[in-house]
């Protein structure tokens, strides 16, 4: 099979911790730059990525807590959903991010929980699937958003869980993986969403852990990086989607962790901080979170522990009393 990979020039084993903290803090502070930028359509998720990353490497300390909570409130809609920025349409993706941020701030009980439950439950379809918003696109990533969002609020029994699980099962492929819909090809990101959903639902018995573990382990390339599908280039975010799934399945030792660390560390910006998708590209908060989160799963340095199902600090998941299922 064709293999695409990158050559690593910079194989430092050191994390430029202080620079990553500065990178993440400046992303939050430079309001004009980030408010008027082309990223507005996903700003709520951007805040979740940046704050979670900062929490992990800054001893759980995140800045300007009141201002952040006010921002969430400004994106609230009467239907119970949240938009990425004020004036945009609500969507399940940003509703999950808003709930995740409120949990990081220990302020989830101040959210309009019944309205959020109503918004999410109305997006469930007769076959158990979820649409992302009122426009009706179905995708297993929205199943994960619905389950994660409601379980963080202790409300996942409000949806039809049996049907939600049945739909995910219908997206399972012969290779053990999962796609976005029944019959769609296996994809690392959607495998995380489906296995994460089954972990929340306590139904990992439905996964063929050996077959899927093999497919996931096959994603590691000679550079040490992981790709999301065969014949694709390695990408730091798949260090999360693929490696966290291997953790949930208790098969994290099926890849070479030292090689993965080397690839992730080679994708840091040693001057300005932050991580990019692969060495030499521009850093961004998305890849910075997933690079640091994968390093956390490998107990790198003093990075705080992360939960492989929720991609949130373990301390927050413990505080909420959640126990997502994992296999050993
Ligand atoms: C790759 O997408 C990633 C995915 C499909 C997973 C997305 C997961 C969510 C939105 C759920 C929320 C996640 C967390 C961590 C709380 P892509 O479109 O970039 O894929 P490509 O690499 O094939 O282009
Ligand atoms: Zn990526």
Q: How would you briefly describe this protein structure?
A:
With 328 residues, this protein is mainly α.
Describe this structure in words.
- 50% of the residues are buried.
- A hairpin with a 4-residue loop joins strand 1 and strand 2.
- The chain has helices spanning 17-29, 31-35, 43-57, 65-74, 92-104, 113-122, 140-152, 161-170, 188-201, 209-217, 236-248, 257-266, 285-297, 314-319; strands at residues 306-307, 312-313.
- The two termini are 31 Å apart.
- A two-stranded antiparallel ribbon has the order 1-2.
- Helix 7 packs parallel to helix 9 (188-201) and helix 9 (188-201) packs parallel to helix 11.
- By secondary structure, it is mainly α.
- The protein has 14 helices and 2 strands.
- Bound molecules: farnesyl diphosphate and zinc ion.
- Zinc ion (ZN) binds next to loops.
Poorly predicted regions: none
Largest sheet strand order: 1-2
Q: What's the story with the biggest beta sheet?
A: 2 strands, antiparallel
Helix and strand string, N-terminal first?
HHHHHHHHHHHHHEEH
Oligomeric state of the chains in view? single chain
Radius of gyration, taken over Cα atoms and rounded to an integer in Å: 19 Å
The overall pLDDT average reads 95
How much helix, percentage-wise, in residues?
40-55%
Number of helices: 14
- Which of globular, elongated, flat, extended, rod-shaped describes the shape? globular
Strand portion, in percent? under 5%
Q: Would you spell out the secondary-structure blueprint of this structure?
A:
Elements: H1 17-29, H2 31-35, H3 43-57, H4 65-74, H5 92-104, H6 113-122, H7 140-152, H8 161-170, H9 188-201, H10 209-217, H11 236-248, H12 257-266, H13 285-297, E1 306-307, E2 312-313, H14 314-319
Residues 93, 141, 144-145, 189-190, 193, 228, 241, 311 line the site of farnesyl diphosphate.
């Amino acid at each position: 099979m064709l293999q695409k990979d990158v050559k690593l020039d910079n194989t430092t084993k050191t994390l430029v911790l202080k620079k990553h903290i500065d990178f993440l803090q400046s992303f939050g502070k430079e309001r004009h730059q980030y408010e008027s930028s082309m990223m507005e359509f996903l700003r709520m998720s951007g805040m979740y990525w940046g704050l979670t990353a900062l929490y992990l490497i800054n001893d759980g300390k995140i800045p300007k807590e009141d201002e952040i909570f006010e921002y969430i409130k400004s994106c609230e809609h009467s239907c119970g959903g949240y938009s990425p920025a004020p004036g945009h349409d609500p969507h399940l993706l940003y509703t999950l991010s808003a709930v995740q941020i409120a949990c990081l701030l220990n302020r989830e009980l101040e959210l309009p929980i019944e309205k959020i439950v109503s918004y999410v439950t109305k997006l469930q379809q007769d076959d158990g699937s979820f649409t992302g918003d009122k426009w009706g696109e179905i995708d297993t990533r929205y199943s994960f958003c619905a389950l994660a969002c409601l379980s963080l609020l202790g409300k996942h029994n409000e949806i039809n869980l049996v049907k939600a699980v049945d739909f995910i099962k219908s997206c399972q492929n012969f290779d053990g993986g999962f796609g976005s819909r029944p019959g769609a090809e296996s994809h690392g990101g959607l495998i995380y969403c489906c296995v994460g959903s089954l972990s929340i639902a306590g139904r990992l018995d439905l996964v063929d852990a050996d077959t899927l573990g093999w497919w996931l382990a096959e994603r590691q390339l000679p550079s040490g990086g992981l790709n999301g599908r065969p014949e694709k280039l390695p990408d730091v975010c798949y260090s999360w989607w693929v490696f966290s799934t291997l953790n949930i399945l208790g098969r994290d030792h099926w890849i070479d962790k030292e090689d993965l660390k080397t690839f992730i560390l080679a994708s840091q910006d040693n001057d300005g901080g932050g991580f990019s998708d692969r060495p030499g590209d521009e850093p961004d908060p998305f890849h910075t979170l997933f690079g640091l989160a994968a390093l956390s799963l490998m107990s790198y340095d003093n990075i705080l522990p992360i939960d492989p199902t929720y991609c949130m600090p373990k301390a927050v998941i413990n505080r909420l009393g959640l126990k997502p299922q994992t296999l050993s």
